[in-house]
Amino acid sequence: MSTTPTFSSEPTPAAAPRNAVVNSQEQATIGKSLVIKGEVTGSESLYIDGRVEGAINLPGNRVTVGRNGQIQANINAKELVVLGKVKGNITASDRVDIRNEGSLAGDVICQRISIEDGAYFKGSIDIRKANTKEMNGAATTTSSKAEEQTRLTAASA
Known about the structure:
The protein is mainly β and 157 residues long. The protein has a domain of 107 residues. Strands 1, 2, 3, 4, 5, 6, 7, 8, 9, 10, 11 and 12 form a twelve-stranded parallel beta sheet that branches. The longest helix has 17 residues. It is globular, with a radius of gyration of 25 Å.
């Protein structure tokens, strides 16, 4: 009788590491019961279902205002999605999306905007092209002066 162990010619599958796929879309959440007064800054996307008063500065990321979210702040982000209520001026380097139950009162500067049926919007929209110096605010004064000059010329005629 032979006592040599028998080995299978098929390799056993190795378990994949749990962190093999890293989520590059990390998102922080401000819950329903949270109230923040001050400035919110960071380098990850943010979902807000509570209240924020002050300023939100996440220039490279998405800010989503949930259905229960109530914002009284100027927002600077790459993308903004509004499902709740926002009062404040918006600067988005990419897009602003106001969904059907969303409400936005304030001036918007962005490349693209979407306002669904049923959404509320009150303010002005300034569409800026990508890769221009206007997004830095340098040409904002120039365009405002040009608009003012146009109004003055039209009023005096």
